[in-house]
Amino acid sequence: MKKNKGMAYAVLAIAFVLFNVIAFAVPMAKTAMFWITYVFTAVAFALQIAIWKFSFKGADTLKSKFLGIPLISVGITYLIIQIIVFAIFMVFPIVPTWIAIVVCALILGISAICLIGTETGREEINRLEEKVEKKVFYIKSLQVDVEMLASAETDTDTKMALTKLAEKIRFSDPMSDEALVDLEAEISAKVEELKTAENKAGIITVLDSLITERNKKAKLLK
To answer: What is the pTM of this model?
Structure first.
């Protein structure tokens, strides 16, 4: 990751050097309009570093890195448009200075709005995924508990019944809901009871019924 960042910054530095070579090598008067558009373009280059750093800040997983790509794309698009505008004003140096200021300011402002919108979208995606992960944790945890009970069970019939129960939980609706809190708490309590109970058959039957009830209610809540 650090190597890729280093290469990206190197490419940006080379592009900035080439931009300066072209900007100052082309024989044209260095008017106020030239310096205005040049400064805006230089700022666009500098902002790429800030955008790239912010995009991958705290990105320790592939998913979080992937979600940072749209932000970088907006930044690069902003830079390209600003360079094109700079080139146009170099070709037409007679354009009034105020037009150059307005155009460059608009590009910067619109790009900033797009960056904010993109980052807001990324935060919303992360928030929704965290919410989903919390909702599916219950059923996954329940499945693991029953599977562990099945693997530790010595009685053949009970072991088979626990295995079937684990399979039923596995194929249950993974999404939880606030309306299911009490029912899920009752299921969890029964699983805890299974861990120390001598006669597990009755509890397994109750659990099977409770899981069926939960699945039906979960389906109704969609």
So the answer is: 0.57
- Tell me which amino acid residue 190 is: K
Cα 26 to chain center, whole Å?
44
CA atoms within 13 A on the CB side of 1: 12
Q: C-alpha distances in angstroms, 166 versus 150, 169, 180?
A: 8, 5, 19
User: What confidence tens digit (pLDDT) does each residue in 197-207 have?
Assistant: 877 888 888 88
> Rounded to 5 degrees, what are φ and ψ at 86?
-60, -45
Mean pLDDT, residues 16-41: 89
pLDDT of residue 60: 46
Tokens 């088979």 — which residue? 160
Neighbours of 123 (CB within 10 A): 11
Predicted confidence at residue 156, as pLDDT, reads 86
What local confidence, expressed as pLDDT, does residue 201 receive? 85
The rounded distance, in Å, linking the Cα atoms of 219 and 222 is: 6
pLDDT for position 15: 92
Tokens of 82: 């600003």
- Whether the CB-CB separation of 192 and 172 falls below 8 Å is answered with no
Contact 204, 168 (CB under 8 A): no
Question: What three-state secondary structure class fits 66?
Answer: helix
pLDDT for the residue 220 = 76
> In the structure encoding, which two tokens stand for residue 201, read together?
């058959």
The count of other CB atoms within 10 Å of the CB of residue 188 is 14
Sign of CA dihedral 209, 210, 214, 217: positive
Cβ neighbours of 193 (radius 10 Å): 13
Helix (H, G, I), strand (E, B) or coil at 60: coil
Could you tell me the two tokens for 64? 């979080």
